[in-house]
Structures are given as structure tokens and as C-alpha cells.
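Side project, low priority. Logging it here so it doesn't get lost.
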Amino acid sequence: MRILDWNGLDRPGRIAALARPLLAARIDAARAAGEIVARVRIGGDRALRGFTEEFDRVKLTELTVDRAEFEAARGTLRSEDIAALERAVANARRFHLEQLPSAIDVETEPGVRCQQITRPIVRVGLYVPSGSAPLPSALIMLAVPADIAGCTQRIVCTPPRNDGSVHPAVLVAAQLCGIDTVFKVGGAQAIAALAYGTESIPRVDKIFGPGNAWVTAAKQLIAQDPNGAACDLPAGPSEVMVVADQSARAEFVAADLLAQLEHDPLSQGILVTDSNALARATATEIEAQCTTLSRAKILAQSLASCRCLLVEDIEAAIRVANDYAPEHLILNVREPRRWLDRVVSAGTVFLGPWTAEPLGDYCSGTNHVLPTYGLSRAMSGLSLRDFQKTITVQEVSPAGLKNLGPTAVTLANLEGLDAHAQAVSRRLRILRRPQEATDQMRLPKVGS
């Protein structure tokens, strides 16, 4: 881990110190994803089986996980594995239930009633990547809020393993979330299948879930197509920033950095501290802990983007954090809640020395699908609202129109939109006719 003196860096140096790893494969991934999407739209299931054989090295006759595989999955897991999955689901449900929106129903002025009602996105596709590790936690983070939101169709796609099966932990997590429809399809081809539908996989309205550069490129492609599907936030490599003072244990700081760095060669971890002693101790700890970890090859690459920034105080560290806008922000300092109000850009925040980052990844209850690559400056992590849509409603009585209508006419004329003005003024003329106005006033009042 390189240690840099923040105060000694000029502006270009500071920009370089906070730079993310370059996603050099983006252009190539976009081109390849476009070809895959086009072939799936034309070839359907046949194209999916071909891509599964090409990319996953598995020849499948059936894309659907059958009942027998679902039933066998639970028996292959230890009781403590199942209990951990159950607890993660329960905590996710508890947290996301609190996000249910309240209805809005207000009379903005007499005779003018405005409402906001909520409806679920009916058909959602949940993409659960596999890659170098199974991710049942990703399924939980998607399936639980989709269920609470009322999405009636929840379709899961996940890549098969070398033997053509889906990892049992993913299937058990699906069962615990009430899902029994899982397809053995991964990559950009899964995104295309969910967006446009095939003989086996139904078309959905919105697609959720992280993935590699090809998955992200496919999601961006189909989201731009009016005939495609909406998508959740774009996913990039994992990242964590730890803000720590001299009270922090280097052992904990190093462990939290490595927890994210082991995800991907392009993952990034940054320590920001006002303690030179902690910086040096953390660098030593990272080196020592790496020798005990199984994903050494990935860590050897991701550590190239790991660095420590020495700042004058924690207030300066918070400014650096807001500038970087991390996916995960850990405040491992004395009185961490004191600094929370200063945080304006982060996907999720961990307070204090005992709030290990993986708790948020797995089981605290918050959602781990978060904005990366600086997008937390303007975007939020996944929540219940992403699986719902709001619809506004307005209802105006004759008296309300008589009072408010002239304002609409004035504004329409101000914009030069005379058809807008006439849609209101024609009604106002009717209301000015004595008998018709009297008849109209006898109609039921708004909201009765």
C-alpha cells in the first residue's frame, strides 16, 4: 500500500491519488455485448444454449432449474449455512419493510385534490452473478425488496457451474425468498433474454443485479432501447474508503480494505488517516494478512490501486471522502456518529470499529447493491422504491376550476400554447353559463 502525503500533493496529484482503476475493457465490452444481445433477440433459447456452451463450458438441454435440483439444494448445505441465509433474509425484510411509502393526498387549494399513489413494477428480472464465487447474498438483496414491493413476477438468471448445476446456496436463498423460477443463464445473454424474452424466459419490465463489464454494457444497451427494459444503477468494481484516526486498530482497517480488494482485480481500497503510525501499521498488516487469504492472485492485482492518504485531521479526511464519493465508507474514528452529518456522498456508511464492512454485504439488513465509480454523488443504493413506481392523481371540482383555471390559461398563453389554454378556457366558459353552472355545482364534490 502506497502512503501519500495529501498536503504535499498539488491538484493533479490529488486527482491522481483518488483515481479509480481504468476500465479499459469498456469499449470492447460494449461492442461484444451488442453482438450478444442481437443474437439472443434473433435466436432465443438456441442462442442462449450456444453462449452457455461457449462462455461457461457447459452444454445444457434445459435452461430452467427443475424441481429435483431445488429439492436437492437444501440437503447439500450445513444447518448453520441455512440458518445464516434465513437470518440474512429476515434482517433484509425487516429493514426494507420500513421503506414502504406513505400515501400523499392533499388539497392544494379548495376544490383541487392531488394524490400520489404507489404501484409495483409487475415483472422484474433479478441477475445473480457467479464468476469466481457464488453470491446468494446478491439474490437476497434483490428478491426481498421485490417481494415487499409487490412485484408479482420475479425471474432469476444466474450462470451454471461447470457441472451444469446452480450453486445450492443460491437456490436455497431463492426458496427462502419465495422464488421458484431460476434460469441457468449468465452474462450479457441473460440480460438480453430478460429484456426481450425467449421461448423459456419471460420478458420483464426492469432488470436488477450486478455483473461484469459485459453485463453492465448489455444493461446500458437495452435500457436505451424503447423495446428493451429499464435497469437499476450501473455496477462497477467494488470500492471502500476507510477514514481512521489513531484510535483505530490497524488489524481491523487492513481486514476491511482486503474484504473489498478480494472481489476483483479492479477493486479499490483507500485509507485516509491523520495518523502516520496507523498508516505504516496498516501497510504491514495488509502484507501479513494477504499471506493467509485464498484469493491471492486477485489481491496481487487489486492492491496496485490501494493507497493511504495522510491528511492533517479527520475534518480534512471527510472532505476527501466526499470528493471521492465511495461505494463503502467506513468511519473508524472516535465518536463516528459526530461526523455522519458531514458525509454527503457515499453509497453506505459503517460507523465505529466494530461495524465490519461484510456485515453490510451479508446480513445487517441494508442493501448491498450500491453506486460505484463516484456515482454516489448523485445516486442512491438499491431500495424498495426502485421496485415501485409512483403515479400522481389530480381531481378538480367546478369551483376549483373556476378559481384556478385562469392561472393555467395565463401560463399557457405565456408559453404560446393556445391549445393548452383552450382546454381550460372552454370549460370556464361553460361554467359561466348560469343554468349549466348550477347543474355542474350539484355534482358530487371532489373525493366524496
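Brief comment: The chain is about 45% helix and 15% strand.
Revisit when time allows.
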